[in-house]
Design goal:
It is a single chain. α1 packs across α3. The protein has a 4-stranded mixed β-sheet. It starts with a strand and ends with a helix. Helices cover 40% and strands 27% of the residues. The chain has 3 helices and 4 strands, in the order βαβαββα. With 77 residues, the protein is α+β, with helices and mostly antiparallel strands. The radius of gyration is 11 Å and the shape is globular. A hairpin with a 2-residue loop joins β3 and β4. The chain has a single domain, classed as Glutaredoxin (3-Layer(aba) Sandwich), CATH 3.40.30.
Length: 77
């Protein structure tokens, strides 16, 4: 099971990233668990300075933008 983490304080961009990521993971038929990390200290522990961020299994894949579901699918493969 993939552990997907949305790193952000809950802003509109963070919500959209979560929505697009859920759609991408569902499109790929992934077995996943999604968690939103909203604590600024935990976000910084990932080395993320610009939110939103996307991490999978503890590895940061992107920060500071909201790609469309197709782009996220490529990252999740």
């Amino acid at each position: 099971m993939k552990k997907i983490q949305i790193l952000g304080t809950g802003c509109a961009k963070c919500q959209k990233l979560a929505e697009n990521t859920r759609q991408a993971a569902d499109n790929l038929g992934l077995d996943y668990e999604m968690k939103k990390v909203t604590d600024i200290n935990q976000i910084m522990a990932f080395g993320v300075m610009t939110t939103p961020g996307l991490a999978v299994d503890g590895k940061v894949l992107l920060t500071g933008k909201v790609p469309n579901p197709g782009e996220i699918e490529r990252l999740l493969k």
